[in-house]
Amino acid sequence: MKVARHAKILELIDNYDIETQDELAKKLQEAGFTVTQATVSRDIREMRLTKIATTKGKQKYAVTSGINSELAERSVRVFKEAVTKMDYAQNTIVIKTLAGMANAVGAALDNMQENDIIGTLAGDDTVFCLVKTQQQAAAIMERLYRIIHIS
């Protein structure tokens, strides 16, 4: 049953932008699986699913494996713990961090592999992030705020 459920989860996250455990549980129930939130939470952990940013500025579950998964988790954790403030002007995002954490946050941004980010430059407590356009900067800011507020 677990193998079939995991296969269905992979199919669901491939076909839908599933943002929460509740959404995933509902889709599984619609597919005929009897699951609780605790079961879905365990499955997510066991399958090493992670949330990634979508082009619509939301988050969704996705499969990342091995080193990439650990790197993604670490990047999100560093970002959440070190960022104190963010703002943007035109196509430049400015991220303020705890003292000495800007390089780690810059590396975390680079590891998030946002295609619209041209590059980052980090000092001691500030990261400059150059983005292709002002609209993309606004969209990336929204995604970064979502990362900070993920519980």
Which features does this protein show?
single chain; four-stranded antiparallel sheet; two-stranded antiparallel ribbon; 6 helices
Give the tally of β-strands: 6
Major beta sheet summary: 4 strands, antiparallel
What structural class do helix, strand and pairing data support? alpha+beta
What kind of oligomer do you see? single chain
Describe the structure.
- The protein is of the alpha+beta class and 151 residues long.
- It has helices spanning 2-15, 21-30, 37-46, 66-82, 102-111, 134-149; strands spanning 49-53, 59-63, 83-89, 92-97, 117-122, 126-131.
- The protein is built from six helices and six strands; from the N terminus they run αααββαββαββα.
- Strands 3-4-6-5 form a four-stranded antiparallel sheet.
Task: Offer a concise description of the structure.
The chain has about 150 residues and is of the alpha+beta class.
Write the layout of secondary structure elements.
Blueprint: H1 2-15, H2 21-30, H3 37-46, E1 49-53, E2 59-63, H4 66-82, E3 83-89, E4 92-97, H5 102-111, E5 117-122, E6 126-131, H6 134-149
Antiparallel strand pairs: 1-2, 3-4, 4-6, 5-6
